[in-house]
């Protein structure tokens, strides 16, 4: 039994990446949104593109703190993703790879197994951590022994060391800072300093994506941001969307008041780099945790001595937050400074960080042993959910 | 009858200094706020659905569907568990570390940095009543006018 393609669903807390292994993945917002302007219908997943006025969007997310808890929401979104409107699939003919968070809770695991075998009538199912797929992707392209995978997503940043393709659980570290915290913090400080944008998660999230960067020398950048006039190279205006002529905001240089084009803008100065800085220093907002580079070192410290060298040489980053300009360089510089001098340090930014794990699923489907990782419908009917716990190492 | 108040008593009230526990409570609230999905009410919450109007997607088309397709509502009821319940349950499923709780990184070995609560630049001073940070007299003024002890419940 072998099919020519499989369906891969990297079910993230903010976006789901879905599609057949023979195609390009679709990135679908994994949420239902309600707009103030459209009173009649909620927007499921990528339907939001049809929404004319995305101000004051109300989010309904299936995930809470990185775990799937709102099943009615998730079911509605999955129905949308698997429908003709998005990326249709028949699971009785196509194997499915679905990702789950690290240490996913047992009852959520059971629920996923049940839903896919019974509701979606899946033939073969592979439940796996997104970091496993990313590690597989990296290992197949680099031929290395050990890898440290850094997944910086919406709810969390996870650091997972792998030794010979197997995750080393004693070394797994989680930082409770992800894209959501960054957006909310930006919203909070902008609302206090300039304009109340507390209801504009969607717009401010875009503003964050468009204007923030990771500083390489934080205190020096703070000094630049303090300067007045043209010697301040950091300060910019972010033009907010008005949903008549501008659909997505953009960053522009500061213009003199008389040249003002009557657009509503937010002035971004130290906000541009102090927001992503939270990934490196969560204590800046009072979250008593290590930043990413320090946590990488802490994770590697927890691994066997003989693997440390190989781990330091193979650090791979992916997830939405890694898209901030300067992210990789900052991680590299700090890890380099922490690590002993005689070790080599390599930090790689996964290509297309958002779909890096999804692409790993594509490679894994081509693995000759692929079907031995999966669980089939017959096995499920024979042995039930208990087998799923044995087979899938979540 | 309007009661007469002493201006000095009022002022003293204002100068109340938050104790450590209250400051920690505030800090925790601020961190919790960073986890919220929305800061406003559901804009459709006040919509009254008329019974005559057909609802979307369900009931009407059901007879034509060949498969039993359970509704989203069914799964909500079937797997209803809160995040706190799940964490508690995990303690019996994976009692020994490594598990979800043990994976959280410990505090950094580096000292905390402090930033002005008003302008975001590095700060050297602490507001005496509430413990917020500020960097200059101007920012302190703004802080006292807008935030300091303003949202203590």
UniProtKB/TrEMBL annotation, chain A:
GO CC field: cytoskeleton; nucleus
Pfam families, per the entry: Actin
UniProt entry keywords in alphabetical sequence: Cytoplasm, Cytoskeleton, Nucleus
The organism's place on the tree of life at top rank: Eukaryota
Cellular compartments annotated: Cytoplasm, Cytoskeleton; Nucleus
Main localization of the protein described in the UniProt heading: cytoplasm
Family: Belongs to the actin family. ARP6 subfamily.
UniProt name for this protein: Actin-related protein 6
Gene transcribed to yield this protein: LOC113391925
From TrEMBL, chain B:
One of the Pfam families matching this protein, by short name: zf-HIT
A Gene Ontology term for the protein's cellular component: nucleus
Compositionally biased region (Basic and acidic residues): 1-22
Location of region: Disordered: 1-23
Domain HIT-type: 116-148
PROSITE patterns with a match to the protein in the record: ZF_HIT
GO biological process, one term: chromatin remodeling
Keywords: Metal-binding, Zinc, Zinc-finger
GO terms of molecular function: zinc ion binding
Name of the protein in question: Zinc finger HIT domain-containing protein 1
Source species of the chain: Vanessa tameamea (Kamehameha butterfly)
Gene: LOC113400412
């Amino acid at each position: 039994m072998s099919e020519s393609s499989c369906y891969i669903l990297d079910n993230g807390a903010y976006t789901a990446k879905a599609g057949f292994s023979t195609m390009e993945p679709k990135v679908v917002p994994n949420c239902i949104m309600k707009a103030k302007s459209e009173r009649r219908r909620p927007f499921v997943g990528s339907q939001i593109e049809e929404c004319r006025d995305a101000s004051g969007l109300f989010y309904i997310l299936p995930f809470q703190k990185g775990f799937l808890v709102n099943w009615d929401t998730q079911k509605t979104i999955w129905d949308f993703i698997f429908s003709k409107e998005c990326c249709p699939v028949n699971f009785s003919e196509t194997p499915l790879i679905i990702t789950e968070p690290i240490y996913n809770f047992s009852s959520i695991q059971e629920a996923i197994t049940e839903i896919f075998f019974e509701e979606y009538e899946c033939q073969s199912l592979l439940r796996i951590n997104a970091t496993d797929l990313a590690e597989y992707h990296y290992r197949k392209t680099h031929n290395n022994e050990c890898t440290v995978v850094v997944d910086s997503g919406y709810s969390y940043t996870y650091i997972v060391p792998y030794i010979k393709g197997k995750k080393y659980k004693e070394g797994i570290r989680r930082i409770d800072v992800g894209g959501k915290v960054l957006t909310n913090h930006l919203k909070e400080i902008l609302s206090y300093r300039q304009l109340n944008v507390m209801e504009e998660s969607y717009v401010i999230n875009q503003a964050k994506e468009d204007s923030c960067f990771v500083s390489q020398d934080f205190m020096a950048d703070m000094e630049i941001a303090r300067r007045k006039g043209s010697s301040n190279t950091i300060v910019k205006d972010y033009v907010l969307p008005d949903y008549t002529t501008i659909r997505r905001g953009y960053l522009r240089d500061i213009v003199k008041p008389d040249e003002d084009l009557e657009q509503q803008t937010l002035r971004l100065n130290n906000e541009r780099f102090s927001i992503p800085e939270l990934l490196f220093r969560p204590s800046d907002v009072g979250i008593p945790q290590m930043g990413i580079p320090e946590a990488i070192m802490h994770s590697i410290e927890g691994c066997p001595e003989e693997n440390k060298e190989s781990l330091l040489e193979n650090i791979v980053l992916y997830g939405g937050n890694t898209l901030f300009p300067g992210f990789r360089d900052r991680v590299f510089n700090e890890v380099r400074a922490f690590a002993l001098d005689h070790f080599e340090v390599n930090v790689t930014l996964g290509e297309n960080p958002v779909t890096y794990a999804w692409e790993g699923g594509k490679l894994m489907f081509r693995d000759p042993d692929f079907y031995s990782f999966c669980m089939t419908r017959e096995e499920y009917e024979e042995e039930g959910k208990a087998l799923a716990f044995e087979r899938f190492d979540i | 009858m309007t009661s007469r108040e002493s201006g000095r008593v009022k002022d003293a009230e204002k100068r109340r200094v938050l104790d450590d526990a209250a400051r920690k409570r505030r800090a925790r609230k601020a961190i919790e706020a960073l986890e919220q999905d929305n800061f406003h009410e559901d804009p459709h919450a006040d919509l009254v659905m008329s019974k005559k109007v057909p609802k979307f997607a369900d009931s009407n088309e059901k007879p034509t569907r060949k498969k039993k397709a359970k509704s989203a509502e069914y799964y909500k009821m079937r797997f209803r568990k809160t995040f706190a319940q799940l964490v508690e349950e995990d303690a019996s499923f994976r009692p020994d570390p490594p598990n979800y709780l043990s994976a959280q990184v410990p505090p950094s070995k580096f000292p905390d940095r402090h930033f002005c609560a008003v302008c975001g630049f590095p700060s050297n001073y602490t507001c005496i009543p509430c413990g917020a940070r500020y960097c200059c007299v101007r920012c302190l003024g703004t802080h006292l006018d807008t935030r300091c002890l303003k949202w203590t419940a």
